[in-house]
Amino acid sequence: GPLSERRLMDVRLGELPAWLATCDFSPQGLLGGVQKAWSSYYDKYINVKRGGPAGISMLLAGYCLLSYGWNYQHISKISFWVSVL
Description:
Layout: H1 16-22, H2 27-46, H3 54-70, H4 72-84
Family: Belongs to the ATPase F chain family.
InterPro entries: F1F0-ATPsyn_F_prd (IPR019344)
GO cellular component, one term: proton-transporting ATP synthase complex
């Protein structure tokens, strides 16, 4: 198919600059890309008939990692004082 309709994983390394030139980097285009990525993730991991808890647990694990990263300095100061006591 046309280069502009291919997904990133289907683009060869030599075609990457041309593929990037076809992308829409406006705020509306970026928002559309985020919506498309979320829809793809939702359809693959959450909105499935035989999926189980895998999609929700991946979201929860990602949230926990981000939360830990944001609060790392605060947590490390607390753990220092707990180890001193």
